[in-house]
From TrEMBL, chains A, B, C, D:
<dbReference type="InterPro" id="IPR036698">
    <property type="entry name" value="TM1070-like_sf"/>
</dbReference>
<dbReference type="Pfam" id="PF07100">
    <property type="entry name" value="ASRT"/>
</dbReference>
<dbReference type="InterPro" id="IPR009794">
    <property type="entry name" value="ASRT"/>
</dbReference>
<protein>
    <submittedName>
        <fullName>Sensory rhodopsin transducer</fullName>
    </submittedName>
</protein>
Length: 125, 125, 125, 125
C-alpha cells in the first residue's frame, strides 16, 4: 500500500506564533503547525532549522516520523535546542533522509473567532 | 475542449475534521474537502489512502470522477472501508489511473464565524 | 523591466460561490476570484473553462490580460457564455497564449465576519 | 547548517491591501505580506516589481535579505519608489541574485474578527 512520496528538503518562509489565544485548549490555542507525511516504508529522520530576521538560525530540531505515519507538529511545542519565541517572525527548513510531504497551517485565535491559513510548503529539488 | 491535466499521484499532509460545527447544515458543517478535477476524456478511478499518527494507513477509499467533471469530496463522507474519526490528525495520498488535479479545503465552523483554508495538494511526479 | 513568467495552462480544482453575503458591497460580496498576472510584453488571450460535477464543461470564457498588467476576475462576474450558478461546486482550467501566473482566492462573507482562502493554482507543464 | 534553497524568480498574482483595520496595531493592521527566506550563505539582493490593472508596473523596490535570515515585508511599508495604494488590485514579481523562498500572507482585519490567507508563491524556473 505504501510508496515513498515527496521531497527530502522543504522550506516555509512564513512563520509566526501569535502571542495569545482565545477558546478551549489545546484545540483553540493559537498555533503554527508543520504537517509531515511519511508515506514510505522507512522511518523519516527529520531535522528542522528555524531562521529569524535578526539572529543566526537555530537547530536542528529533530523529529522522527515513522514509516506510513503523519505527524502534525506545533512549532509551539519545539523545545530542543530551544523554544521559538512568540510574536516573532521566523521561517523554517525541513530536511529528511527519506522523501516526505510538508504542509504549513496556522490557527490564529487571538480574537474570539479563529482564522486559518494553510499551504503546501516549498519542495526543493 | 478537454485535455488531460495534472498528475496521477497527490498528497495532502494536513487533515483534521473539527469535532463540532455551528450554522445551517450542510453548508456550515465543519468539513475537510478534497476537490478533484478530471479535465480529460477518460473517467478517473481514484484511490485515496488515509494516514494517521498512531496506526497503519486505511484504504483504499475508491472514488470515480467521470471524464470532464469535478468532484468535491468531504472526508467526513467517506465510509468504506471505514469513517475517518473527528478531532484526529490525518494525511492523505490520492492516486488515479489518469491525470487529475487535487486541491484541499477546510471549513471550520466550530465558532460562530467560520474559517477557511485551501491549498493545491502536492503533485508527485 | 518585464519578462514573461509562468505557464500557459493552469487548473483550480476548488470553486464555489457562496449563495449570500454580509457587509458593504462590492468589497464584502462573497466572491471567488481568479487572479491573473501577465508580466510579459505581449497581451495574454485567456480562455477559461468551467467544470461541474453533473454537466458538461462550459466555456470558453474569454478574457484579455494586457501586457504588464494583472486582472483579478470574480467568477461571479462571468456571464458569457453563461453565469456560474451559486452554491454549486465547480472547477476551472485557464489557458493562455502567453505565460501567465494564476492564483485563486475566495472571500466568504456569509457570516458577519468574513473568511479568506488563497492558493497558487496548479501549473500544467 | 546553511544551504541555498529556492528560486531566483517568484510571482504572486494576488495582491490587495484592505482599506481599513480593526484591533491593536501593528499586529492587527490589515496587511499583505511577502515572506522571504534566504537560507544560503550569501546576502540576497531582492527587487520587487508591482503590477497593476490599469497602469505600468512600478519598481524596482529594493530589499536585502541577509544570509541565513528571513524577512517578512508588508507591502504596506514599501515607499520607494512609491507607496502601494490601498483598496487596489495588484500583483508582484520578486527577483533575487541568489535563491530564496517566497510566501504570501494577508491579514484582513476590516471586520472585528480577522481573516487570514497564505500560499507559497509561484517559483519560476
Amino acid at each position: 500500500m505504501s510508496q515513498s512520496i515527496g521531497s527530502t528538503c522543504w522550506a516555509i518562509a512564513e512563520g509566526y506564533i501569535p502571542a495569545y489565544s482565545n477558546g478551549p485548549e489545546p484545540q483553540f490555542t493559537s498555533h503554527e503547525t508543520v504537517c509531515i507525511l511519511n508515506a514510505g516504508d522507512s522511518d523519516a529522520h527529520v531535522e528542522m532549522t528555524i531562521f529569524y530576521s535578526d539572529q543566526e538560525p537555530v537547530g536542528p530540531y529533530q523529529v522522527t516520523v515513522p514509516a506510513r505515519r503523519t505527524r502534525h507538529i506545533r512549532f509551539n511545542d519545539l523545545t530542543d535546542p530551544k523554544p521559538i519565541p512568540h510574536d516573532t517572525d521566523f521561517a523554517s527548513v525541513i530536511r529528511s533522509d527519506v522523501p516526505i510531504v510538508v504542509q504549513h497551517t496556522r490557527l490564529d485565535s487571538r480574537q474570539s473567532e479563529n482564522a486559518l491559513l494553510s499551504t503546501i510548503a516549498y519542495a526543493s529539488n
